[in-house]
């Protein structure tokens, strides 16, 4: 069984859609003045992509404006988002943790400000996150 997640990129933010619950949210970079201790400047997002480890995940991606690239090097993913095309890949997360990435295609003036944070959690924590009301989404903290 695959968890299906899609991404579409528009200038300088990422929109993430989880198809099993029709969840949709955007991820934006956290401004330096709003950062908490322990978070990385230019890499922290206001909404992380929460995924369960130990499960297959299918990613679909496209773009609505220019070419972007959803890249998380520590997961071995570089998925190009091209307008008018749908790209896909599969991933099996082996462990919990935070995995950081960025758009790796020069897509415009704010290209360097499109961070990606994948937060891999156990299945129980993922289900709990899925059951939470959409308007109270909060980032889980991995021990």
Please characterize this protein's 3D structure.
By secondary structure, the protein is mostly beta strands. The protein has a single domain, classed as Immunoglobulin-like. The protein is 6% helix and 43% strand. It is built from one helix and ten strands. It has one helix at 123-131, and strands at 2-10, 13-18, 23-27, 49-52, 56-63, 68-72, 77-81, 87-92, 97-103, 115-121. The chain has a five-stranded mixed sheet with strand order 3-2-1-5-8, with no helix packed on it. A five-stranded mixed sheet has the order 4-10-9-6-7. The two termini are 27 Å apart. 24% of the residues are buried. Residues 135-143 have low confidence and may be disordered.
Secondary-structure blueprint of this entry?
Elements: E1 2-10, E2 13-18, E3 23-27, E4 49-52, E5 56-63, E6 68-72, E7 77-81, E8 87-92, E9 97-103, E10 115-121, H1 123-131
Parallel strand pairs: 1-5, 4-10
Antiparallel strand pairs: 1-2, 2-3, 5-8, 6-7, 6-9, 9-10
Please give the largest β-sheet.
5 strands, mixed
Distance between the termini: 27 Å
The residue-averaged pLDDT reads 75
The CATH architecture comes to: Sandwich
């Amino acid at each position: 069984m695959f968890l299906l997640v899609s991404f579409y990129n528009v200038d300088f933010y990422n929109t993430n859609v989880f198809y099993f619950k029709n969840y949709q949210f955007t991820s934006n970079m956290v401004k330096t003045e709003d950062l908490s201790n322990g978070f990385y400047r230019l890499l922290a997002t206001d909404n992380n992509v929460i995924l369960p480890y130990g499960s297959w995940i299918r990613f679909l991606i496209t773009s609505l404006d220019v070419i972007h690239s959803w890249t998380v090097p520590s997961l071995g993913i570089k998925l190009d988002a091209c307008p008018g095309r749908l790209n896909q890949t599969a991933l099996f997360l082996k462990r919990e943790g935070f995995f950081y990435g960025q758009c790796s295609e020069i897509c415009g003036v704010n290209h360097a400000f499109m961070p990606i944070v994948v937060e891999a959690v156990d299945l129980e924590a993922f289900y709990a996150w899925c059951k939470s009301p959409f308007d109270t989404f909060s980032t889980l903290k991995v021990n």
